[in-house]
Amino acid sequence: MKKTLHLAFLLIIAFSVLVSVAPSNHPVPGRDQGVYLYVGEQILDGSVPYRDIWDHKGPVIYYINALGLASGMSTYWGVWLLEVISLFIALLFSYINMEKCFSAEAAFFGTAMWVLGFAFVINGGNTVEEFTLPLQFLSLFFFLRASEEKKHYWNEFLIGVFAGIAFFIRPNNIGEPVVIGIIIGMQLLFLEDGRKRAFFRLISIGVGFLVFSLVIVGYFFSQDALNEFWRSAFIYNFQYLAIAPDRWKAIIKGISYLSPLVPLGFSAWIMGLGYFFLSKKKDLRERNILAFALLILPIDFALSLTSGRRYLHYFTAWLLPFGFFVGFFAYKFQCALQNTDDRNFPKWLKPSKIWLYLIFLSFGFLQFQNLLPATKNFASEAIRAKGVPDGGNNITGSPCEYIKNHTEPDDYVLIWGNEVQCNFLTKRESPSRFVYLYPLMLGGYLSTEEIEQFRKDIENKKPLIIDATSDDDTVFSPSSNRWEEVPRVASIVEFVLENYVSVDQIPNSNWEIWVQK
Predict the structure, then answer these.
(1) Band of the pLDDT at 469, cuts 50, 70, 90?
(2) pLDDT for res 345
(3) 444: confidence class by pLDDT, cuts 50, 70, 90
């Protein structure tokens, strides 16, 4: 009964967090989400990522979006439903893991705190980090189960598969399998009795990772897209990392986003460090759990900050380690209250479980209160629609509305910048496989042939050009003098200036409308 109540309340919190980014409350997706949705839609029309549409994320996120869009639900409700399922799986296995390691109350406290923390970094939802959350908690679940089942290596194989899925969503999100591999590797080196098993455990993880990797590589090879996959998902990102901003500022930003989860988690990490080295009452399983928890925090930190950028969703990777340590903190707090001598401790403080719930309420109430307006709006829209709200079709007042009303369905629209969500919402195709212009800005990335093909696509398909650079300092406006800094793409800019003219701005925005002369 207690577990059922815990999980029911956790599901309510999680649903309230996700309602804030439901299509009825968030009808116009963000930049990244717009790209994923557009690529997912093109996949359903027979296109292949990288070969036919350029982006630099791992391929799995596009097929997740394609799956959601294939549901037939209006706009991106199907994708949002996959987000709900993903988060529910993550919190379920978070609770199971922490209950197995600590107690039911600590599991509730730790899970509730990271789910509430997720509200700070959800960043519009449908992010690569969000869809790797269940993989993180599943990896830990099978790692814990592997210490109890020693007759086979299926647990390790599945950890490898999850590592492969996470890697091909975003390579930075494989902290958990890496830590598990380090722990098993240490056993291989230092435990004489368990070396043979540790060796085969590592091999099994590697095989699981390899199997999923071969599926991905084999698919793109069969579609004659392997080279483009490599150049987009790896080469571009390597060059992108070379211009990383200050990582220390990113750390400070992440800590500010996730307060008070971070202070509690850091305090518990320090406490766990002391417990690991000073306490002698530890069996191998408990040592493995502590080693995992102590290692995952710095490794997830390092991996999430590789780019040095401060996008909110990057800090989603911190939720598992901080949530786990908050659970550890709650468990030790609970044990301390239970073991305190009655003569020296007021009786009214003894119900340790009550105190854990009170602490949670003090931390979680304000954040939960912030989620209530979106939840109420969702409920009222659902009642009015007698089912799924139709608010996701509402682009009134956005630049996308102007584009839809002033173009025909078979017209091409080039968003000069990165606002591909308008292509998705208006069902207007981009004239080029480069659906946004960031690759043009990375000097030396595009080949001469690709630059010329981009120019020809504009020449042949004659798109309406919408200059959205007023909201994005990553790309220069067509009329900017700064294109001299990127001389390799001069032919594209020159063609636009010779054949197009800026005629107006989209109402209620600074986006310029460029039409053919």
Answers:
(1) very high
(2) 47
(3) confident
Q: Give the burial class of 386: count Cβ atoms within 10 A of its Cβ; 0-12 exposed, 13-18 middle, 19 or more buried.
A: exposed
Q: What angle do CA 174, 176, 182 make, to 5 degrees?
A: 105
Q: Name which of 484, 110, 133 is nearest 323 in CA terms.
A: 110
Which runs of consecutive H residues, i.e. helices, occur in 279-427?
284-304, 319-339, 352-385, 399-405, 421-426
Dist CA 163 CA 157 (whole Å): 10
What kind and span of H or E run contains 237? helix 236-241
**Burial of 105: CB neighbours in 10 Å, binned 0-12, 13-18, 19+:** buried
CA distance 480 to 6: 57
Strand partners, 504: 513
Rg for the chain (alpha carbons), in Å? Answer: 25
What is the rounded distance in angstroms from the CA atom of residue 90 to the CA atom of residue 464?
43
Who's near 351: CB < 8 A, 6+ residues apart? none
Strand partners, 466: 415, 513
Most confident of the ranges 255-264, 327-336, 390-399, 418-427:
418-427
Which tens digits make up the pLDDT trace of 152-162? 899 999 999 99
Closest CA to 500 of 420, 428, 414: 414
Tell me the pLDDT tens digit for each residue of 131-150: 999 999 999 999 999 988 87
Average pLDDT over residues 97-115: 90
Round to whole Å and give the CA distance between 19 and 91: 16
Of 424 and 341, which is predicted with more confidence?
Answer: 424
> How far apart are the C-alpha atoms of 506 and 465, rounded to whole Å?
12
The angle subtended at Cα 269 by Cα 267 and Cα 272, nearest 5°, is 110
Q: Cα separation of 13 and 364, whole Å?
A: 10
Ramachandran assignment for 55, one of left (phi > 0), alpha (psi -120 to 50 degrees), beta (any other): beta
Look-up of token digits 């815990």 = 6
- Tally of CB atoms within 10 A around 344: 6
Q: What is the rounded distance in angstroms from the CA atom of residue 211 to the CA atom of residue 191? A: 29
Find, among 176, 340, 123, 367, the residue nearest to 259 by Cα. Answer: 367
Q: How far apart are CA 386 and CA 150, in angstroms?
A: 52
DSSP annotation of 475 reads: S
- The structural domains of the chain, with segments of one domain joined by +, span 2-371, 399-516
* Pairing of β 413-416 and β 464-467: parallel
Whether the CB-CB separation of 211 and 161 falls below 8 Å is answered with yes
Reduced to 3 states, what is the DSSP secondary structure of residue 416? strand
State in Å, rounded, how far the first CA of the chain is from the last one.
71
Collapsed DSSP state (helix, strand, coil) of residue 504: strand
CA-to-CA distance for 402 and 506, rounded, in angstroms? 7
Q: Which residue has the tokens 């409700």?
A: 77
